[in-house]
Fold these 2 entries.
Entry 1:
Amino acid sequence: MIDVLYFAWVRERIGLPREKVQTDAATVADLIAELSAREERYALAFSDLAALRVALDQELSSFDAPLAGVREVAFFPPMTGG
Amino acid sequence: MRLSVQAEAFDLGAESNAFAAHVAGAGAVVTFTGLVRDNGGSLAAMEIEHYPGMTEKAIAAIMDQAKARWSLVDALVIHRYGRLAGGEAIMMVATAAPHRADAFAAAEFLMDYLKSRAPFWKKELSADGATWVAAKGEDEAALNRW
């Protein structure tokens, strides 16, 4: 079971800020494929990966990164701080 | 080094003075303040979302990098989240160094990295609706100079 968090327009498209997900996905890309297969709103949120960033346990990561041992996955658009 | 991620407004003068009062060995203090642009009066408010936990870690890592690269006596980052009105201060950085070149460079480095590597997202609210501010290619490109 991992915590999956969504921020900014990803959160708005999916309609919730976080959820617990039961998954055997090996990589972030596998998790995205599982989520996208669930419902249209997920497929829509994940339709353009170039517009998304991912953090694993609060560190920026990449879509081909393995999920073994990861407790928290966050999806969000490119950051706009400052 | 101090970092604060907060909803409350901060007092730029008080923060700058407090920072500059405890920088023994420094010959230069640089401060930068980012304000909410009101887009010619059309902006009703800006909402800033962040990722509690990761935000603090990411900023601390950026500050550590700055400290490793330049001769810094001290550094300060304050960044707000929540709903802000046009003209309000969003964030500030302050750097103190023996000489101004390091203080300026470290402040610019902190700003460039806060823009694209600290997990904040800005949404502009106006009479026309709400729009997420898109990240700019030039902000990402700005990281390459470091």
Entry 2:
Amino acid sequence: MAAIDQRDRVVLGARLNKVLIVLLSIFVILGIRLFYLQVIRNDYYSKLALSNRIQRERVLAPRGIIRDREGSKLVVNVPVYQISVLPGKVQGREGRLQLACEWLQIDEEKLRHNLSEWQKRYPDGREMTAVGTANKRQISILMENRDLFPFFKLEMKPRRQYPEGSLAAHVLGYVGEVTDDDLKWAQNLQPGDIIGRTGVEYRYEGFLKGQEGIRVVEISAEGIRIGEIENILDARDGAEFISSQPPIPGNDVYLTIDLRLQRAVERIFDWERGSVVMIDPRNGEIIAAISRPTYDPNIFLVGVSEQQWSKLNSDPAKPLFNRTVQATYPPGSIFKLITAYAGLREDVIRRGQHLVPCLGAYKFGNRYFGCWKPEGHGTLSLYGAIVESCDVYFYQVGEMLTADQFAAAGRLFGFGRVTGIDLPGEVVGNCPDHAYFDRRFGKRKWTKGHLLNYSIGQGELLATPMQLCFMAAIFANGGTMVRPHVVLKIVDTDGKVVYRPGGMSVAIQGIDRRELPIIKSAMEGVVSGESGTGRAAALADFRIAGKTGTAQNPHGEDHALFVAYAPVDAPEVVLTIVMENAGHGGAMAAPLAREILAEYFSTVAGLEGGYQYGVLDVDRVAGPNR
Amino acid sequence: MGDRFLHNLDWLILLPVLLLIGFGLLTLYSIGHVPDDLGRTFQSGESSFFHRQVIWFLIGIGVLIFATIVPFRYYESLAVLLYLAGVGLLIVVLVLEPSQKASRWIVLGGFRFQPSEFMKVAVIFLLARVLAEKRNDPNKLRVLALSFLIVTIPFLLVVKQPDLGTSLVFPALLFTILYWRGLNENILVLFITPLISAFLTIYSERTLGRGTYPYPLLIFLLVILILAYRRRRDIVQGVLLVGLNLGVMLIVPNLWNRLQLYQQKRILAFLRPESDILGTGWQVYQSKVAIGSGGFIGKGYLHGTQKLLAFLPEKHSDFIYSVLSEELGYIGAVVVLLLFAVMIVRGLYLAINVKNRFASIAAVGVCAYFAFHVIVNIGMTIGLAPVTGLPLPFLSHGGSSMVISCFMAGTLLNFSARFYEY
């Protein structure tokens, strides 16, 4: 290895000088800064140090309120006092803790147990909630004896409340305390914070949350709050850190839900499991939506016990499940509308064409495919086949179509893809095509027989109630698609609208609008016709169009389905009803639709006089002032 | 070994080291101590830090003696091996289950060990070995690329942990060593000014948002133009210098806007602690209160008050200098600063006095290591540098830092005792 020679040393000497100049000047700057802080500004910092019993507290912003479309409150905040324990301050004060528990009527043993568990889990000494909602007695005792019980902290917190109980629970969602997992990815969350877990509470978290503020408070050496401070001294370079900042409350969310209608639907729908969705086909607003069974979101606030939670979660009826967007069913005969469209579009049938008469079953190969009506429908045109929901007619249409033609028509009407609703957890269902059947059954292992089932909406085809509503809205609109949504607008505290859904209505590309009127008129026949399967939904004064469906269910009784829109000439409401294990759609779901639509026209449509069957005339209803 | 060895040994390096360790232990003891008059209100503090640090001190002294005695040619011959081992450990840390928020430690039988500290030594030795060869002139592209490669691998591994503060040590070591080995100053300027430009551009982002002019950035632009003017004879360099910096100033805001909000916040909190009042800004503020309230002569040993309040976080490790300055005042703070300065300056003089090129370069690397840590750590406590989590050598609580610092000091002593060796 070469040594450093004299010539090197000269070069290095010059470099050393430069390095020394840089290094020493930085050290001098540090020294000057220290001098500035410790000598020149000593007085200022001494005062700060003395008053360094000053702490910042986070002031939680009140969460935004959720209202119905008219402004009625569906979710509010109520202030509650909460008692927390500061684990670090308990040590050495066991006697006092005992006394405190006695006075406040807290189970001491349980508290101690919880506290030791808590400290094992969070060794950083973070505070634990001892009493979620303190009563008046506890509050006054604690306020008077702050000095005696430094380990207890009394804090006012806004708490979420759902004044209508389980009403529209699945749309509203619920909130909960953040978990450790949330804290890992979220930057601005702290233990104990409340965030939305499902529904609108989750989806619009960013709007509802608000922005927390900072409160500067003086505390005694014992860590007890003495009072709030606006500003400290003439704090010049500290002022930036230690002035209070008020919180900015969350924005109010106005839903498209109509409270009166929602209440009525909740009352009318007396089936144990199922769902109802009502949307306005002109703009996609969801004016009522229920999912059964339901739950009361208020229980999540009091702090759900492990037991309650597992009970809710493991309930086979799945009350937490939002059936309107998370449950899928075979659409049954409702899908015949799509089969009819596909048949017309692909020119395999013509409008007035009669096919082989229905004798109660259709022989395909060496198998018989039965019609729901064993005695048969006789000879029918397409119109009659939809009105009477004849299976045999549609078997024949299905036989002439390919799987991909089914899938293309289904996709056009929203099957097999999300509707884009602003609620979490929406599933896509299934709209199988040729490739799907190949995957599912193997190449050439499936036959036209599967397509016969496809044509009447059974088998692999699956859709959510929301998708059925979406589809019916396309018929109601004559080929225009609207994205279902539950939020009407979001308004900040100054009343300024900060969000309004837009671009909700889009004309569907590739739909053949010439084929729709015949299907639509048949849908009207389903409700108004003598032999229509949905005639139980008929109202004397309103022209209603609909389609019944009965979804076969391998696990039990069939599901009863019904979609409808009204009034026929200017549709303003689309309705989907799903009743699990109820039987036939026409017999079970259609009568409910009648009641709900009657309620709709008497309340929402703005007819304050109240609706009487047979008294109102159609014209008064045609132009509602909603 | 013998009289001559001890005679040659640079006591002006050893003595500051011992004194600094002493200061560290005293401060750690003080943190665990509650003044009598306040004993009623405060529980006894964290004395365990002191006890553990005493053990680390004993181990550290052992390492220091070892590092002094071993002939330094072994360091040179082992450099490649040490480097590979260090990179291996850094990868192991990344692959193993993270022990905390960031994966920085290897746990070995109750001891936690930070490979990134070890890596700093390995990088210094390997750079010194490569650049000690006379034909390896750092102005050659090949040598420059090799040096960058040596540093970039550990740099990226540490960034990945993520430990941005520690990772910045590596470029600091690289540039100091390259400069010492004769890197053309013009090239150095080309490397360093774009970094400053990027820093100032981000720093000015909020100023621009408020509608005022970003003065530091404009001043720096002026400096660049002056530098370019002085290079007017070499038009390529001048244009390159201005172009690079202007390019950075224009591209950085664009990249900046593409970052997620939380990423922006994290970087801003790093560069400007006061922008994050709920987090690091609060620490810096509390640290300034502690130091400022110390005054000229301090509140007296064991009589600090800010250490008692929970406001000063990391007071036993990253912010130990705040506690020391509060109790011992400006005098104590400056004495510590001077001790570091003496040690580093002696180390730099050593670098031109040793006859061996490896020793010369390694000595500069070690000095750069100490200087960077001291400046960044103390700068952080008084609000002049970003909050990085870099420890203060010899004082901060922590085994890895103590052992490595003692080892580094030992190598300096080693070079001084064998300065005549070729």
